[in-house]
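Sync notes, pocket subgroup
Present: LS, DG
LS reminded everyone that the earlier model was apo-only. Rerun requested with calcium ion included. Inputs:
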Amino acid sequence: MGTEGEYLIGIKAIAQYLDLSVRSVYRWEKEYGLPLHRTSGAKGTRVLALKEELDQWLVNFDGASSRNSLLKNTLWILSFMVILIGLIAALLLLGVIKLGQEPSPTHVKIRDNLIVITDEQGDEIWLFAASSYSIAQKNLTSIIDFRDIDDDGFNEVAAATYDISRDQFRVTLFDNDGTRLWDRRMSSEISFNGIKLRSFFLTAHVKFAQRSNGETVILSRWNHRERFLGVIVCHDIEGELTNSYLHKGNVSSMKLCDLDADGEEEIVFAGTNNLLNGEGVFGILSIDDFNGISPPYKVEPEYEDLSNKLINYIEDKPDPGIQKAYFRFKKLIIMPELMPEYIVARVIYADSASMHIRLAQWRISKNETLAIDHVFSSSGHLKAVLPTPSAEKILPGFLNSYGAENSLDEIKELCGRSVLRWSGAGWEPVQIAMEGEE
Ligand SMILES: [Ca+2]
Ligand SMILES: [Ca+2]
């Protein structure tokens, strides 16, 4: 499995061949020039290695001498493995051994208080206990994802899991047969404003993703149940935490898409920002490199009278976030007459052409919700503003004055003034795209 002719296909097959961990293979490539190749196809980038090339490289490799002599000693074993793998490949070709008889996890369903993993035909393969939070999810695919990370024909499963006895939410990687490869809960190392944030996080999103070097990683989004903070983290396939991004407010949604059509997906997330007095925000992170704390890092002038309250969201030693972009919907400008009590932005849709971000505003005291969809180009220009039915109901006057067909541009202009983009040092107005412009 994972072998085809003279090639080793997939990082796990290469790691197995070299008797190394997957992480070490990537490290050896980076540090010692281990010869790996990559191909792009419909399934994304695949890592390949030519066996002959690896063998030759091992013979020449004299980086770490003790390791090297060990490797030389094991070359006889490796040669034997090459013959054995060749034999297995031949048997596969001749149809003596048949793959695919073991079911591959592809779907998920809820039964009673259990999450049931099934194959393509809907037949149950294995199951685990569900949290009430998981059961309440309308779309289980946001907390369970399937991907064949080692190219052996069977999907591994990344999932949000729950330890009832400890009341802990976790992200777990399962092998195709249901074996738990690892379990991680939100690290207690994460602290905010001098307070260590412990186990009060729930996993709200779990997704396989791919870095530009072809490495498969697992992204998860967590929300703090009391302090309303959001965290987006990345684990490698061995369960090591490689990136974490702390957001100063709820992160209500996260989507992966290739915004700039360069073949690599980005993370688009949206929610609210507590230091911006609950304004709606959205941001873009690179899967390869994201870390730190979301902007801003001080109380903005328009909220100075709320300093006593907002100061709770300023860190003593801020670790400014590494993000591709970060936008806010400035509450005071968008519709001063509305005075919403709660605002949240959600990613509705994102692809390489545009991002649709819905800004929903609740006036809880009046039991009203107003939502307006903003369409941005992938480069962050505001392309269009689409009032939703709730906007038409609550704001007839607003739409009568601006809603005539030829004046949607005026709404766009009005809403456009409320969208600001983080420059690294402060906020700058978002650019409004003209008709037919990106
Ligand atoms: Ca697999
Ligand atoms: Ca991209």
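DG: The chain has a mean pLDDT of 82.
LS: Residues 421 and 427 are 5 Å apart (CA to CA).
Action: DG to write up.
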